[in-house]
UniProtKB/TrEMBL annotation, chain A:
InterPro entries found in the cross-reference section: Bact_solute-bd_prot1, SBP
Lineage: Bacteria, Bacillati, Actinomycetota, Actinomycetes, Kitasatosporales
Name of the featured protein: Extracellular solute-binding protein
Coiled coil: none
PROSITE patterns xref list: PROKAR_LIPOPROTEIN
Domain of life where this protein originates: Bacteria
Presence of keyword Lipoprotein: yes
Signal peptide (from-to): 1-24
Species whose genome carries this gene: Streptomyces tricolor
PANTHER family the record matches: ARABINOSE-BINDING PROTEIN-RELATED, POLYGALACTURONAN_RHAMNOGALACTURONAN-BINDING PROTEIN YTCQ
From TrEMBL, chain B:
Family per similarity comment: Belongs to the binding-protein-dependent transport system permease family.
Superkingdom in the source lineage: Bacteria
Keywords, alphabetical: Cell membrane, Membrane, Transmembrane, Transmembrane helix, Transport
Membrane topology: Multi-pass membrane protein
Protein name: Sugar ABC transporter permease
Membrane spanning stretches: 20-43, 84-107, 119-141, 167-188, 220-240, 273-295
Location in the cell: Cell membrane
A Pfam family: BPD_transp_1
Alphabetical list of PANTHER family matching this protein: BLL4140 PROTEIN (PTHR43227), DIACETYLCHITOBIOSE UPTAKE SYSTEM PERMEASE PROTEIN DASB (PTHR43227:SF8)
Segments forming domain ABC transmembrane type-1: 81-294
Length: 438, 312
């Protein structure tokens, strides 16, 4: 009796461990070096409807080359960066990932992204120089293919601007003047709000003013968050908050939605994707908004920043980097793919030729009153200032939220908050062991 | 013969270990091992060389107690702990006070609709913490809150519940709303287990319902009060859901509002799992010290009370 029992136990144990091996095998099926046979790739992305776009590939060019791509839907932005890094520690990152431009240095610094300059170098001409340069991080390597961009623009309620006799500001000085005039005419309304929750917006505004937050010289990083350009931007918004002519509550809250929907806030400094946000945040205001270029720091300038935008990157863990790069290039340059991306995912393509064709030949439904929306947008996109991201954008962004949140609450000095942001960022770099130059 | 006896006795001797094995394996795999790994991580850190781009730029090295000394010197962590202390000073007494009050009221003889009331008070506990925090967050936001609307219509001032001192009340309110029901059930259950003779004797001695509640019921449910207090301390030290959910709604909650939020931020915002592991270990130690320290103190007092009762 004990014998049979023991044997059964052993059999079960063997079965269990076999099952575990089978499971483990499932996880690593991509490891087989089979560039000769059919290739299957996994792609982590948060773009809605990406599975439909990938279907185009799997039925078309992918079928011909024997490359099948599977989409795994993920959370957006920083959450995905963390997930990629965790997967990469186990050497199990997917073949392809979506990554925001500011996340690229973090991913590259963790050796998660492969250099695909050899595979995608020839499509460089399809993108604006400033956009492509973001994927190179100041090296000769190319770590991603640009997918969408978020050039910044000024959105305003056309009807309310007329009602209060306001003019669309073309400089930031006029912007401040407009905020003051509105406060005089309608004290319960605000032109807009300064949101300490949206680090990306502040980064874009600083970028427009000419700031370069992270630069390299030799083997050293230089952090320029507290530079003259950013100080100008911080001082400007801090002044408006202190004066009380704009609101200081965060964006993307139920309160903010209501303020936009009821016309309590009548303008929004945002990016090309704003129509999508306004459609859900302020549904009652359809057709009442208009878009204009971002106000400038001086009249002879014509430059904008970017808020958002992402790229498609190939990981170092991928066993089929060449095939993955081929797909990334197709996804972001092929006419049909970009059209489908615009239709299904609502993205604004980085590829310049796609910015005026197909889905972008007529304005977004929410802006039906502005027929030239996308031709204007394409013109603005061309004026995007170059950006400069570093390996700890996440730290700077968190520091921004905390320091500027407190400053907005206390209506205190924004430039002091900026100094905190600079100090936190430098301290973190040094702590990690990066060489930082003064 | 002899061989079979020896085998049988061996089998019997081994039996307890056999029974223990599953629990031991599970404990080792899912409890001891992860904790051990976290502690191991807390003694490590990453060194970057040069620009930190490309392969081989990052190396994991031994950090000794570096992560711990940094965590102990970190003002963010300290401020977080102080904030949680303030929050706990509101939550624990209010929640347990209400729970005791409700339990006593439900246990009194004159109560009507007891099953319904019990369920109604307990129900918020069944609402997931994140949902509860979101729900209250919307009720706190002045522009969408029906309370602010009503106060505005009545011409009364509307307090900003998401700022300064009121923020603590706002956060504590969510925890009290969600936790009172659970604690009430614990206390109520132990009230029900008090034998009826005790009450009868008290009544014969001429005790009023209030006297019965204060002199008999509360002392007799003291062990459950200790237990609920113990749970509440742990829950307070681990507060995370409520402030994290309210964070995007206001400028007043920063990313390291509570110690656990700081751990989360370090692990997943800054990708520094080593510092996060050290902080988590420290929080676990403090939780252990506080909760078991309290339990020991409570036990000692109980024993003393019992012995004094015996002498009397």
């Amino acid at each position: 009796m004990p014998h049979t029992k023991r044997r059964r136990l052993v059999t079960t144990a063997v079965a269990v461990s076999l099952g575990a091996t089978a499971l483990a095998a499932c996880g690593s099926e991509d490891d087989s070096k089979a560039d000769s046979g059919p290739v299957s790739l996994t792609y982590w992305t948060w773009t809605p409807g990406m599975d439909k776009v990938v279907d185009l590939w799997n039925k078309g060019p992918g079928k011909k080359d024997g490359i099948t791509v599977t989409v795994k839907k993920q959370a957006s932005g920083d959450t995905l960066v963390t997930k990629i890094l965790t997967a990469h520690k186990a050497k199990k990152a997917p073949d392809l990932v979506q990554a925001e431009y500011q996340a690229l240095p973090t991913l590259v610094s963790n050796d998660a992204l492969a250099d695909i300059s050899g595979e995608v170098g020839d499509i460089e001409g399809k993108f604006a120089e400033g956009v492509w340069q973001q994927t190179m991080l100041g090296t000769d390597a190319v770590y991603a293919v640009p997918q969408d961009i978020g050039p910044m623009m000024f959105y305003y309620r056309e009807d309310l601007f007329e009602k209060y006799g306001l003019k669309v500001p073309t400089t930031w000085e006029q912007f401040a003047e407009t905020a003051r005039r509105l406060k005089e005419k309608a004290p319960d309304k605000d032109l807009t709000t300064f949101s300490a929750n949206d680090s990306g917006l502040f980064a874009g505004l600083a970028q427009q003013a000419g700031a370069k937050w992270w630069t390299t010289s030799g083997d050293r990083w230089k952090v320029g968050i507290d530079d003259a350009a950013t100080r100008k931007v911080a001082g400007f918004w801090g002044g408006l908050v202190k004066e009380g002519v704009i609101d200081d509550q965060p964006m993307y809250t139920p309160s903010w939605n209501k303020a936009l929907n009821t016309g309590k806030q009548i303008a929004w400094v945002s990016a090309v994707w704003a129509p999508g946000t306004l459609t859900t945040a302020a549904p009652d205001t359809k057709g009442k908004w208009a878009m204009a270029p971002l106000p400038q720091w001086s009249l002879d300038q014509d430059v904008t920043g970017s808020w958002g935008g992402s790229s498609t990157a190939v990981t170092t863990d991928s066993a089929h980097q060449e095939a993955a790069a081929e797909f990334a290039a197709w996804l972001n340059t092929d006419h049909d793919a970009l059209n489908a991306l615009a239709k299904e995912g609502g993205i604004y393509p980085a590829s310049t030729s796609a910015q005026l064709s197909g889905a972008f030949s007529h304005p977004p439904a929410f802006f039906a009153n502005q027929p030239d929306f996308y031709s204007k947008a394409a013109d603005i996109a061309k004026t995007t200032a170059p950006s400069a991201w570093g390996p700890n954008v996440n730290v700077a962004y968190t520091s921004f939220k905390d320091a500027f949140g407190a400053a907005a609450k206390n209506k205190s000095d924004f430039t002091a908050a900026l100094r905190t942001m600079q100090d936190d960022t430098v301290a973190d770099l040094k702590k990690q062991g990066f060489e930082v130059s003064r | 013969m002899s061989s079979s006896t020896s085998r049988r006795s061996y089998g019997v001797k081994g039996a307890p270990y056999g029974f223990l094995l599953p629990a031991t394996v599970l404990f080792a795999l899912f409890f001891a091992l992860p904790i051990g790994y976290a502690v191991w991580l807390s003694f490590r850190k990453v060194r970057v060389s040069g620009l930190g781009l490309g392969s081989g730029a990052r190396k994991e090295v031994w950090a000794g107690f570096g992560n711990y000394t940094e965590a102990l010197q970190d003002s963010e962590l300290l401020h977080g702990a102080l904030r949680v202390l303030g929050y706990g000073c509101i939550v624990v007494p209010v929640m347990l006070g209400l729970a005791l009050l409700f339990a006593l009221m439900l246990d009194s003889e004159k109560v009507r609709l007891a099953p319904f009331t019990r369920l109604a008070i307990f129900l918020p506990y069944a609402v997931p913490g994140v949902v509860a925090a979101l729900l209250w967050g919307f009720l706190y936001l002045p522009d969408v809150s029906p309370f602010s609307f009503a106060l505005d219509k009545l011409g009364l001032p509307q307090p900003d519940l998401l700022d300064g001192g009121p923020l603590y009340l706002a956060l504590a309110n969510i925890a009290v709303w969600g936790g009172t029901g659970f604690n009430m059930i614990v206390i109520y259950t132990s009230l029900r287990s008090i034998p009826a003779e005790v009450y009868e004797a008290a009544k014969l001695d001429g005790a009023t319902p209030l006297q019965i509640a204060l002199r008999i019921k509360i002392p007799m449910v003291a062990p459950s009060l200790v237990l609920t207090f113990f749970f509440s301390i742990i829950a307070t030290l681990q507060v995370f859901n409520e402030p994290t959910t309210l964070k995007p709604l206001t400028n007043s909650v920063d990313t390291a509002w509570s110690p656990l939020m700081k751990v989360y931020q370090d692990a997943f915002g800054r990708n520094d799992i080593y510092a996060a592991a050290a902080e988590a270990t420290l929080i676990a130690l403090v939780t252990l010290l506080l909760s078991f320290g309290f339990l020991r103190a409570a036990n000692r007092r109980n024993k003393r009370d019992v012995s004094q009762g015996g002498v009397r």
